[in-house]
Amino acid sequence: MAMNDLLTIGTSGVVSSQRLLTTTSNNITNVNTPGYTLQRTFYSADVLGGVRDGYTERVINNFAQAQMFRDLSTYRNREAYLQEASNIDTILSDDALNISPKIDDLFTQLHAVTDNPTALSTRELALSQFGALSDRFRALSEQYTIQENAINEDLEVKADEVNVLLRNIHEINQEIQALGGSPLDGDKATLADQRDQAIRELSELMSINTVDEPNGTRLVFLQSGQALVLAGDVAQINMVLGDPDNTQRDMTLSLAGVPRVIGYDDIGGKIGGLLEYRKSAMDVSRNQLGQMSIALMDAFNQQNRLGMDLNGDLGLDIFTLPTFDGKELSSNTGTGQILGSFVPGEGDQVTPYDYRVTFTSPTNFEIQRYEGDKPIDAVIAGTTPPTNFQIDGLDLDLSSGGFAAGDRFILQPTRDAAVQMTVSMTQPEKLAFAAPIRVERELNNRGNAEVTIDDIYDTDPASSYFTLPGGYDINGPHEVRINAAGDYEVFDGTGALMGTAPAASAGQQIFATAGLVPDPGFDINIDGDAMQGDVFTVGYNTEGFNDNFNALEMVNLQQDDLVRKSLATTGDNKMTLNDAYASIVSFIGGKTSEARTSEAAAKSLFEQSEQRHLSISGVNLDEEAANLVRFQQAYAASAQVISVAQDTFNTLLSSVR
């Protein structure tokens, strides 16, 4: 078999070296080009001598690249979560928005009032502190609203970015397919790099998987399996108003015109991180803040109602408790509505949870508590009539009727409670700092026993002996007498015996021990040595404005457990106001710390997988510089072969002349 001549061999060497130099030069030039993948040109020896036609392809490991994309998505997911959690963590700890100092200011002023409960100046300051505390709750709650709106806007922008990237990937797929030939062909390298860069940017926004087709195209799917880019179609991502909570955005994926809501667990990436933060941290802590505001408002309302104001009337509410509506799903077929309110006196029963109401028939329903998007505790069954259903300090009004099987509602009772916190009282004299009851011992009593108020717990005229606007029923207990046996006999204002507490009670909680029906709404204690015939009187505290009994009770609210912290009905299931706020700060702090740890770990994993990918597909300038010298020398040597061939040819010509 004849060999190729020197000229052919040298020419093939020059051409191949020139192409190798071109490839190396291209690598060096694109060292800083985002998404550029290292290219290599390969040749094989011609059996007749010289070099066969070579080919250029990208140097890439698909597994390493896919791992890098997955780690990048996880890193961006944790980064987005951490950024939002850090923002609200900073806000909650900011002295300008911190609620604890305002709570302390209020109780400090109430302490001052106890020294002179009739002074309008100290009353005005106390009322202003109620207003300042409300302002602080609203200001802090508004920060959640601002963050919620910012997240909604960010999600809208990111959805548009996703759609652009998906269309870009789809169009590049079509271009690569149209070129034909091998998927590894160097002629397609630029298009493949552009597609990989788009996939990289897409993986920052959501977690994806890719599948390479034999024709060089690449299909893209969400990590949960939903198709994003197919051979002949591309998905459309939209952020739509939440159903039923239209203050928040949900992500839908449409392929072939069929939209489907996608949860954050299925999305991943930055978008999933934002949605996860909203559900697992922002909404939960916002509800906790609302729960705390309800507990505070209700506690002060109830305590003020147990006192007598500067006008001699029974106290009224200081705050206006907000109301809430059930948010109906768009799929509901019935016309029924759920109206919600907070049960006065049960603010310490309110939880920070959302509630989902599902009608199993027009008159039967089930209620499930939710923390974020996670169900809490067991399902509670209910039925209508009656038209009102109470749960966890909430009153649900179902009187509208018209419910249908399958109807569903979302209740978010505490979500906006803090931002709606309002002081309804405008007159400082309406603050009820005195006790509505006055108890006294007769001057001619032989014993040294003293009578005191044990507790006042109900001044509602419908269930006690108090009358509006400020008075006391003649049928209530007006007098306690000590009989010969040392028992405590209770008489009403007409002189009729109402009941007797035995001497063994030692004068403690006399009305409860005597079993008075109906309950007077308060109770008294008689301490000391009481003698037969001693009389102790009970009556409305007329002109008793200097009394600070109820003001002291308000001060004691600072140490009382007013906020529910668990669904348990017994044990340590409540906490103070300051503890409640500390719990909110601690909750967000814990979420932030957890996110910071997971973000650091995700970043480390991404950097490792990126380095692995770059070690395979990245441009190494030192290596390329060495190749440049090597290929240049090969080019020169091949050119020398051509020169030798030319000299040999000239020598042969000269020999025959």
Protein architecture, described:
By secondary structure, the chain is α+β, with helices and mostly antiparallel strands. Among the domains are: 6-59 and 618-655, no CATH class; 437-540. Helices cover 42% and strands 21% of the residues. The strands form ten sheets. It has a five-stranded antiparallel beta sheet with strand order 11-18-13-14-15. Strand 25 (488-492) and strand 26 form a beta hairpin. Helix 3 runs antiparallel to helix 4 and helix 3 packs antiparallel against helix 9 (549-556).
**Unreliably modeled segments:** none
Percent strand equals 15-25%
Helix fraction, binned, reads 40-55%
* Extended strand count: 30
User: How would you characterize the largest beta sheet?
Assistant: 5 strands, antiparallel
Gross morphology:
elongated
Distance between the termini: 31 Å
Q: Given the helix and strand composition, which structural class is it?
A: alpha+beta
Mean pLDDT rating: 92
Number of helices: 11
